[in-house]
Structure formats: C-alpha cells, structure tokens
Amino acid sequence: MAVVGRPRGVEDAVILRAATEVLGRVGPSGLTLAAVAREVGLVPGTLVQRFGSKRGLILALADQSVKDADALPDRVRGEHEAALGALAALMTEWTAPLDAPETFANHLAALCADLTDPELHARALDVHRAQRRAIERLLAEAAAGGELRAGADVASLAATVQAVAAGAGLNWALDRRGTLAERVRHELDAVLGPHTAAGDRKA
C-alpha cells in the first residue's frame, strides 16, 4: 500500500497564521477547515490530511501559540537595549493581531471557549504563564539595570502589568479610542511610572 505523504506547497506555519486571520474575522464558530483552506488556496481535504479535523487544527493553533509565547520574548529583547523598551515592544507585539474591536471580540470569544475545554485551557494557561515569565524577567532586568527604582517588587509588578494589559484591551474594545497598541502603551507607562528611576528623580 502506498504511503500518502504530507501535501507540499504550503507550510503548516502558513496555514496556522491563516487560521488566526480567519478566527479574527469570523470568530470560533466561523473557523472551519473550508474557510482556512480558501484563505491559503488549498482544498479542505488537504487540511483534513494534515490536521485530521477542525479540532485538530484548533489544537495545532493552540500549540503554536505556546511556542510563540516562549520564543517571542527572546527575539524582542535582542532588538532593544533597554529592558523596559523591550517590555513595551513585547506587549505591543502581543496585541498586534487584535487590531480592530471586532477582531478583539472574536479572539476573546475563542478564549472563552478555551476556558471550558480542558485541553485548550491547558494551552491557554501555558501562554499566560509564558507571558508572565517574560514580563517578570524584563522587569527584573530593568531593576538590575537601574531602570526601576531600588526595592521594586518585581513579581507583584509583573502581575499588575499583565492584568492591566488585559483590562486595557477590554476597555479599548468598548470605548474604541485610539489603537489598542496606544492604549496598552499608555497603561503600561501609567503602571510603571511610579516605579521608574525617573519617577524617583521627579519626587
């Protein structure tokens, strides 16, 4: 019996990026193998062969999100001299796919669905923890390098930064003032301002 190999021409990473785009446009209910296949110019059967089912595609997308959450901080850190600059850039990149309130709402709907599914919840939690580690690491670097005032509670500050970023997204989706990136940067500055060395000099 002949073994059918993986169809060539479109890498899995390209398909998963397309799935993210489709999810942002139509939400979890509209995310189908057919819709993603159209996005990348394949037939749905090709996606069935690669991922098995819609659930297989969603699990693969969740796994990729975990990998990205682990890899992105190192790349962003290498592009910035200052740790706080890297933190601001990292949070901007995290929010980049959510560039419209409707897109934000569709991704939020997907997260709400993930919270009721043990396998998807585990992956969402991995992403959450990876992001917390990255924030805490950059804040620790900022403290060690003198960007934050002496004695800053890095762990508590990291938790606050993560929570404020999530809340900023919801507030922005409701009032729709400016861009999400601008809102997150503004809230980050507000949280970190009292803890920076510059803030000490102004006091």
UniProtKB/TrEMBL annotation:
<protein>
    <submittedName>
        <fullName>TetR/AcrR family transcriptional regulator</fullName>
    </submittedName>
</protein>
<keyword id="KW-0805">Transcription regulation</keyword>
<dbReference type="InterPro" id="IPR009057">
    <property type="entry name" value="Homeodomain-like_sf"/>
</dbReference>
<feature type="domain" description="HTH tetR-type">
    <location>
        <begin position="9"/>
        <end position="69"/>
    </location>
</feature>
<dbReference type="Pfam" id="PF00440">
    <property type="entry name" value="TetR_N"/>
</dbReference>
<dbReference type="InterPro" id="IPR011075">
    <property type="entry name" value="TetR_C"/>
</dbReference>
<dbReference type="Pfam" id="PF16925">
    <property type="entry name" value="TetR_C_13"/>
</dbReference>
<dbReference type="InterPro" id="IPR001647">
    <property type="entry name" value="HTH_TetR"/>
</dbReference>
<keyword id="KW-0804">Transcription</keyword>
<feature type="DNA-binding region" description="H-T-H motif">
    <location>
        <begin position="32"/>
        <end position="51"/>
    </location>
</feature>
<keyword id="KW-0238">DNA-binding</keyword>
<dbReference type="InterPro" id="IPR036271">
    <property type="entry name" value="Tet_transcr_reg_TetR-rel_C_sf"/>
</dbReference>
